[in-house]
Amino acid sequence: MTTRVGSLKTRLTISRASQASDGMGDFVTTWADVGDRMASVQSLRGGEEVQSARLNAIENLQIKMRADALTRTLTAKDRLSDGNRTLNVKWVGDLEGRGRWIDVIAQAGGLIDG
Asked: Nearest to residue 100, comparing CAs of 30, 5, 24, 6?
């Protein structure tokens, strides 16, 4: 599949987690924005999951971004935001194998840690 720069229409904010002391001997997860990138975002399929006896909607998304110094460090421990929702990163790779694009599978809805 050929990706064109013009298909990168969604601005995503990349956030990284870090552990900070809560002053009581415990640690809490805090999120810091590390950059914004334009991306192509396509919905794969939705579904539902049960959490605490509640049914929650989830949506799986396929995301493609240009590879650069920041996007090459993206992992499943990071999260993305499009301004309206938070996306948990589930998988990151280079499907073309040419080092020009970063492919991401992310999930909206469901359990968002932090």
From this structure: 5
Task: Report, as an integer, the average pLDDT of 69-76.
Answer: 97
Count how many Cα atoms sit within 13 Å of the Cα of residue 98 in the half-sphere of its side chain.
7
pLDDT at 113: 47
Both structure tokens of 95:
């499907």
Q: Which residues contact 43 (CB under 8 A, 6 or more apart)?
A: 59, 60, 61, 62
Residues 6+ apart with CB under 8 A from 6: none
Q: Please, how many CA atoms are within 13 Å of residue 21, restricted to the half-sphere of its CB?
A: 3
Q: Whole-model pTM? A: 0.79
Summarize pLDDT for 13-39 with one digit per residue, the tens: 999 999 988 888 899 999 999 999 999
CATH class of 26-109: mainly beta
